[in-house]
């Protein structure tokens, strides 16, 4: 599904990602862990197509398409979803309308007619139940005045609405209390199928108690320095990143 | 430089000599006392001249270019071959209106210049009101406008012969929305100087929609003054819609005089126009009065818009709220100048002012100047002004959900404008203005899309599928 080869990314001439390789197949959950400032969020942003990053080498192929050639919106239409670490507040744009517009753009892209009102409402209702967010929130402006936990749940809500093929959840666990974390994790688990895949970016092992990854990768200084299964996450939790630093030097 | 100066003096000379040579026609309709006001104003104009950027209030709006053009002035009405039915065909659903219009500055229905509605409301031609109700008119005429004397206002008072007159008696609610439409359509460039007077009795209610439209592509200049007197408890909703061609200039000056417990809500929605200047003066003259002064301007190309708002808190316990928002593209320029004066005894004043702007590129310019002048000590006043760009983080967020850049920008611009539109309390009008704003943002609004009137091209289906009414 996703194939990243020898990816090099720089911001303002400073190299952040230095030769990263990653293969993700349908049905898999990958966790990317690592200390702060090692390029985890940069990787997520580059896959989603955020401006301000120079890809100096390498490629990202998604279902046979060269992602780096596509604008942000087309990547999303191809099935990429980014769960933001810091979801943006957009005053004046209601959640409902935001989602209807996004869904209809998606349908148009696939040659379908706009979503019928009834179907849309049903989908909203189901997605809302999944992440336990109140319908009051979906009537409000996008993320405006939402608490930290509500914002993160709202990301999963959007993921449920848009049914992406590949979801990248960037530090979705940060700032969540344990109850909210469980809700978010349950949402992600319920949406999992053998046709989609998820990349969970996290600093702590905690989230991985609830979203069980098939693979764990450790990102350090712009490279994946170690890959393994969920045991690796446990080991990291126990020994800290210092242990890896020592090992990789 | 010499050429410019000659040209500048030309319009002054022209209006001076035309005034003198057409004085008989100008004063022919004047009730007692009016000619003196005219003569005084004419002399004021000779002294003051047209405003230049040397004056603080005109620093960012240079009208000298406009003064170099040659204009025709009409000293009497001419309806030409206008097909009234074609223009005055309104299809705003559930929007019951009484339409009164000015054609090239003159009241259009010459055969029925003044109408008295069953509830006593009088609407029609200002010129005719001067004849039929001289005492009523002269009690208020030029009483409020003289508070801000400049060359343009003086010239208007010297020249103005016709315009719209509205009188709503005590306790009467004008049962329909009154639409006042100024249409410019003439082979030559016109200088139009009409005068409108609105008198509202105690507890009277009025909704007035005031549209300025071009019907051709001539470079006309309108210098219009509207005076509004609101007696105790009067309630007025006032919507100005401006959709003019790119060569037309509009200097629109309003004076609102509010007595005790009166409530004003006035909007200036500038959709298109070469140069638009809205001078809005509100005097809160009776305790418990309130004014909402709102504006939205969407300018591009070489257009220029200037909103000057002066709110005079003359007595205690009054409130005012200003919200002006603008989106500026291309080489367009926007000016906002908000002056709030709280006089010495005007304790317990609440006055708020906000001006927010989005500029879409680095060639567009915004000059915004809040100015609070406070002489009382127990007041709440605030102001805020911002000039920014489309929020890139928000844009990325929206695009990351598969929404195109074009639609993402439209969503953000519309959301920005909607804060003003949502303050409109008349639903059919809100929908219509909403429609016009959306069209304008998409670049689909033509000058011939006449504001509230010519609704034949009303939006039905578009590729852009966002249901903005649900926002």
List key phrases describing it.
A: 249 residues; alpha/beta; Rossmann fold; 29% strand; B: 471 residues; 24% helix; disordered N terminus; disordered C terminus
Structure description:
The complex is a heterodimer of chains A (249) and B (471). Chain A is globular. The relative contact order of chain A is 0.18. Chain A has a single domain, classed as 3-Layer(aba) Sandwich (Rossmann fold). Chain A contains 9 helices and 12 strands. Chain A has helices at 40-48, 72-78, 95-109, 117-131, 135-139, 148-162, 178-191, 230-239, 241-248, and strands spanning 2-11, 14-24, 29-33, 54-62, 65-66, 80-83, 90-94, 141-142, 166-170, 197-202, 215-220, 223-228. In chain A, strands 6-9-10-3-11-12 form a 6-stranded mixed sheet, with helices on both faces. Chain A has a 4-stranded antiparallel sheet with strand order 2-1-4-5, covered by helices on one side. In chain A, strands 7-8 form a two-stranded antiparallel sheet. The longest helix of chain A is centred in the middle third of the chain and has 15 residues, at 95-109. Chain B has 471 residues and is of the alpha/beta class. Chain B has one domain. Helix content of chain B is 24%, strand content 35%. Chain B contains 11 helices and 21 strands. Chain B has helices at residues 2-21, 23-27, 34-48, 64-67, 84-87, 126-132, 134-140, 151-159, 392-399, 405-421, 427-441; strands spanning 97-103, 106-107, 114-116, 122-125, 164-168, 177-184, 191-192, 195-200, 205-214, 221-230, 235-243, 249-258, 263-272, 275-284, 290-299, 304-313, 319-328, 333-342, 349-359, 365-374, 379-388. In chain B, strands 3, 4, 5, 7, 8, 10, 12, 14, 16, 18 and 20 form an 11-stranded mixed sheet that branches. In chain B, strands 2-1-6-9-11-13-15-17-19-21 form a 10-stranded mixed sheet, covered by helices on one side. Chain B starts with a helix and ends in a 30-residue tail after the last helix. Chain A binds chain B through residues 48-51, 71-73, 75-77, 81-82, 84, 87-94, 96-98, 100-102, 104-106, 109, 114, 141-142, 158, 162, and chain B through 391-394, 396-405, 407-408, 411-412, 414-416, 418-419, 465-468, 470-471.
